[in-house]
Amino acid sequence: MHRRIINLALPSIVSNITVPLLGLVDTAITGHMGEARYIGAIAVGSMVFNIMYWLFAFLRMGTGGITAQAYGRKDFEEAELTGLRAISISLLIGLAIIILQYPLLHLAMWFIAPDENVTQLVYSYCYICIWGAPASLGLFALNGWFVGMQNTKIPMLISITQNVVNILVSLLLVYCLKMKIEGVALGTLIAQWAGFIMGSFFFIKKSSRVIGVRCWVLAYRSNHQHPSPNTQHPSSIFEPTAMKAFFTVNRDIFLRTLFLVSVNLYFVAAGAKDGDIILAVNTILMQFFILYSYFMDGFAYAAEALCGRFYGAGDMTSLKETIRKVFYWSIGITAIYSVVYGIGGLDFLRLLTDEENVVSASEEYIFWAILIPIAGMVAFVWDGVFIGMTMTRGMLSGTFVAAIVFFTTYFSLEKTLHNHALWLAFILYLAARGVTQSVYWKMKNEKL
Known about the structure:
Elements: H1 2-30, H2 36-54, H3 58-72, H4 76-99, H5 101-112, H6 116-129, H7 133-148, H8 153-176, H9 181-224, H10 240-273, H11 276-313, H12 316-352, H13 356-362, H14 366-388, H15 392-417, H16 419-445
């Protein structure tokens, strides 16, 4: 079981680590265009799409859980249809975003309210990148499907390919063809479609194998079993019962994402109210959480794939063994991160910035960053387990309770603790998600 967990977790961790390269390369390229406003435009434009796409993260999560369960019960037809269903819905949503791009982007600009010097550049960037919406959302569905099919290596290869394409194309357009921010946007757009095309190729290739296995299973059943009159295998992508189940699962994940987005956006906004130094401090310290999440997301994906598989197969023994061992690995990772952050936290801050006033101000808050792994570990694991088992109501409940804890704590203590209140609220928010989900699991575990 340990080997299965690691084989699924490691490729996901590698994928997560490659993600910052996109932002790093874009920032480095724009940073040499001669004006600081180009960097600001990339930052704002990336934020717009990060938030927009984050709201549709259910396309990956819901697809992964449903597919993993179908894989576990050897219902290969439903596994294949789930992938086709998710891809179709993703492309339709992406097309809707393109059609509604003008009101959506104007709303985003009104909400973010960037400086006038960068606003037009942001529009130039966004009006190009928006054409990648179907590819980006389609890739969400594809990656979820691959995870559900117990394969995290293909998403890793796609992620690496996207980064390479983005880097090469952006450099070519900006430095060889002398384009400005439009070249960076086109690099991102081409990389998105390259990733989707690559994912679609592997999906078709994998599906042909799925079809072959399905034929073998059906032949075996026809020779050895009498078919049950109650056995149903939906043969349509948009079969009503399957669509209802798909949207029920994804509705809960979507609502959960709204609570996550609200907490994260308010965290940034609240820090900004205390001035540029505190905003910079909070932004840099949040990198501690992001770095930790790269590893923990890998083990959450492993839990998602294996728990969904065993739950679908009705193998409760293997399911509970998987949960225990994912927790073992997570405790080890958390201990390492906590020790490293405690010993080398300030040195890490100096790697991120040479602004001594920011580093000096960070010293007062760095102990909150050290608590992040301890407070967040349980929620990461349960998220993976619940996605795999499509226990999405538990995820929604946990995030709802945690959001209440966050806002209640901050508004109660803001005037006395100031930025410390914000960090305390965030730590309690992470812990509350884990505690609530643990209680939810205990109630459900009694019925398994």
